[in-house]
Every structure is written in structure tokens, then in C-alpha cells.
Amino acid sequence: KMSVPDYMQCAEDHQTLLVVVQPIGIVPEESFFRIYKRISAVSQVNVRDSQRVLYIRYRHHYPPENNEWGDFQTHRKVVGLITITECSSAKEWPQTFEKFHLQKEMYGSTLYDSRLFVFGLQGEIAEQPRTDVAFYPSYDECETVEKRIEDFIESLFIVLESKRLDRATDKSGDKIPLLCVPFEKKDFVGLDTDSRHYKKRCQGRMRKHVGDLCLQAGMLQDSLVHYHMAVELLRSVNDFLWLGAALEGLCSASVIYHYPGGTGGKVGPRRAQGGSLSAEAGNRHRPGAQEVLIDPGALTSNGINADTSAEIGRAKNCLSPEDIIEKYKEAISYYGKYKNAGVIELEACVKAVRVLAIQKRSMEASEFLQNAVYINLRQLSEEEKIQRYSILSELYERIGFHRKSAFFKRIAAMQCAAPSIPEPGWRACYKLLLETLPGYSLSLDPQDFSKGTHRGWAAVQMRLLHELVYASRRMGNPALCVRHLSFLLQTMLDFLSDQEKKDVTQSLESYTAKCPGTMEVITLPDGLKLPPVPFTKLPIVKSVKLLNLPTSLRPHKMKSLLGQNVSTKSPFIYSPIIAHSRGEERNKKI
To answer: 359, 376, 393 — which closes off a domain?
Structure first.
């Protein structure tokens, strides 16, 4: 059973040859990845004397059980192995070369060719010319690495082409072997190999396999013809798993035809140095492009006498963008019948979503993603769960479902600190939580909350802020705790219950006792700036009541020194009012 899904799979990966690059013995990680980066840059090579282009997919780790599904879909088969090793003396060489052979045996049954890159060995051994081994004095003196890889890829092409011709050509009545996936082998013991049903099954599966080989060999239109024929044959015998694979092959070839820029959202692969694509090869994927005809006899092997020669090279074999999605749905429904094909089903869903994202059909894409969420695989490790939820989040983001994307990213963050992990990754958890903020309409700048109505769901935002506080504490950063708690109190005050206000203020009091709050901007390692949080909403004034001043501050009446009552009415010794009243008294006496 294939147990490790590749969440980065795209429809165009079906045209790639899989090459594994691995170290042998003790190789410093930095040195290995320096060479791996150079090797993996040679991912697109123009085949000499041909209009065809080969695409290579490099991996530095690949589970051997996934390799067993190579007959089902040939892009899953490890066809090339490149090993990197250090060897400082001639004495170590025999043991080093033996390790190379042991490594080859791991993928032995599927390898077309392999190479060993040796760093550090000089002298007589290093001077002997060999095709399978390259010697370099050091990691800094290895200018020919890219050229060696191009030659290696050409050798892979020669083997691929011979297999394609061998499988596609009429063998004059030879029996076609029945290709199987690992879990099927026990089911076919004792079957009648002479029955018409069995022969059709063999023919359909082989036809689909030849379609895969054509796609890898750069013969897009030929692959479409083979896939169409395989679909008809396999449908007639209800061979559902392989029918699903033939339909998916049809989808992949059609996606490559319609979307030459790719669906992965990554930067396009770099062309091999010195490999110049001809104008014809450059136009290869454009609608209406003509493809080389399949060699004579290729379409009449073992009694399949379908007269399709007129269709070869015509775009009518290619599915329309709408049909691609319909065929993906059909293929996934067939995969769903087999619990051992969970990884194949999951990856097909992801590929379909990437195509729908380009077609801007978000609602349909979300249905495929929803299906992917519920596909039950074996018990996943915590690391695999983090990867799964992160990719789901990225795909939801791509189709514009920002809140759903944030939901899955938050789950990934929580998974980083799962109790079952011996050393929880609180920094990774905190970083992922920060990435969820835009999806929940949450900014960490208090000024964004000072105007207008509140955006987003306050209850979810408060939960997220509490989680940021907790992650900050577990990272051992009390200053961050104070900043996030202050922000929570200032911006969410209207939504906190009395008990919550009490809890938050008590927590804030406890943290500020260790690390007082400041009005400085906090800059995080990734450059994000957290502005200071002034408490403009606190304290809350509910009612105003005038209180008596203390005795020492109360005003007192002054006693008149002249014994005149009128003067007590005014703080002035002489005022116009007093003068006026005295004048009136004088007039009365007169």
C-alpha cells in the first residue's frame, strides 16, 4: 500500500522522469544540498536530434513502497539514481563503490541508469575514465556537474525510448503481461489467462502504460490516443482502478496541452544549460500543434485493430477544460472504490484543485478539497499532519477561501505543539498563527480598530489572541505576552464578559510584574512589527459624582476687618459695587 502522499503533485508531473539524489556515507548537509541544488536546476532538457523535451523531477527522499506503484503511473517510478559521497583515499574507494551498489539495489528493479559523484578523491583511480562515476577534487571544483547531468538524462531517454517502442510495437501474438498494483497481485492467482476478458484487461492496462511512456518521452498527442483507447478497453471489462488511471492520464496530457505554463504555481523549470529549444519544440503545447506520428505497427499490437491513425496529431483527442474536470471527477470516483488507493485519490483531488484554481472555478475546487479532507489514510505522523493541513490551507488560499485557509493553518499550528511531540515547536506554532491573522480579518495594529465597525468574528479573534499569548509564553518571551494581552484588552474590550475582563487583567498584572509593558515597537525575527498599545478605552467612566474636598483645600469665608457687612459679599477691599452702595446711602441722608 502506498502510504506517503505527495501534496505538491501537479498534473504536469505525469510527464516527468523521477530521479532520486541521495548521499552515501557521511556527507555534510550543507555540501549535499549545494550540489543537489545544482543538479535539480537541470530539470528540462532538449533531446539531441529531436524536437522533444524531457522533464525531470528530483527528490532527495522517496519511499521505496511508492516506487512499487511505478507500473500503475510511470511518473511514480524511480528511473534514475544519483549518489553523492566523500572519499579521501584510494583505500576507502572499494568500500565506497560497494555502498553505491547497495544503494542501487534499493530501487534496482526500476532504475534505467545511475551515477556516483565522488568528492575529495584524487590520483590514479580518479583519472580512469568512467561513465557511471564522476570524480571531483572538492565541492568548489566541480564545474562539469550540470554537463554530467545532461548526459545522464540523455542516457535515461535512450532507455525510455527503447521501452516505449518495445511495449508499443506488435509482438506477433506474444502474450501481453498483466500489469498490477501491489495489492492486486494476490487477487489474480489462478485466473483463466486465455479468456477474452483477461486479454482485454491486459491490453487495456498495457495501452495505458504506453500512454504514460509517450507522455514522458515528449509525445503528447500520441499519449492522448493511447489513453483514449485504454479508456475504451478498460471500461468494457469494468477494470475500475486502471480505468481511473487512464482517465487521469487523459486529464494530465490535456492539462499540459492547455496550460503550458503549469498548474503548480511555482516558477517554471529552468532549461538545461546549453540546451536550446527549437521553435517547433517551443510551440509543442499550443493548441493545434502537430505531433510526430506513432511508428508503424504501434497501434495494432495484439489484436487491437483500432484505426485511429487519422486522429493522431489532432487536437480533437485533447479534452476541453470543462471535460478535464468531469474526467477527474470520474477517475476519483473509481479510486474511491479501493481503500488501498487512498493516496492516489488524494493526489488526484489536489491536482484537480490546482487546475480549477487556474480556471477560476472556486466553488467546484472547494468540493474537491472537501473530499480530500475526508480521505482516510493510515495513521499519519505529526509532521505529516502539519504538512497536510498546511497544503490544504495553501490550496484554499489559492481559490480565494481565506477564512477556510486560516482555519487549516491554525490546525497546522496547533499540531506543531501536539502533546505527542517530544519537543513541541512553539516557534513554528507562533509563526503559523501569525499567518492566520489576515484570514480572520485581524491586524495587530490597534489603530485599525479605532475607526468604524468591528470586522470579523470577535470570538474567534479573541481565541487566536489567547493562543498567541500562550505560544509567546512557551517560547519564553514575556514582552510578547504583555503586548498581545494589552492588544486583546484594548481592541476586544466591548466583547469581553466581566469574568473575561477580570482574567485578562489578572494575567496582564502577572506578566507585567516580570516584564513591564513599554511604548516601543517590538520587531519579530521575520521582520513583522508589533506597534505599542495605548489604553485609550481604559479606565471606563460609568458615572460622575462630586465629592467634598479635603478640609485643607476647602474655601473659607473671610471676616470683615471694618465690621461692614457689605464687604463680606466681595473679596475686594474696594469695588464699584461698594462705591455705588455708599453713594446711595449718602443720598438718602440728604
So the answer is: 376
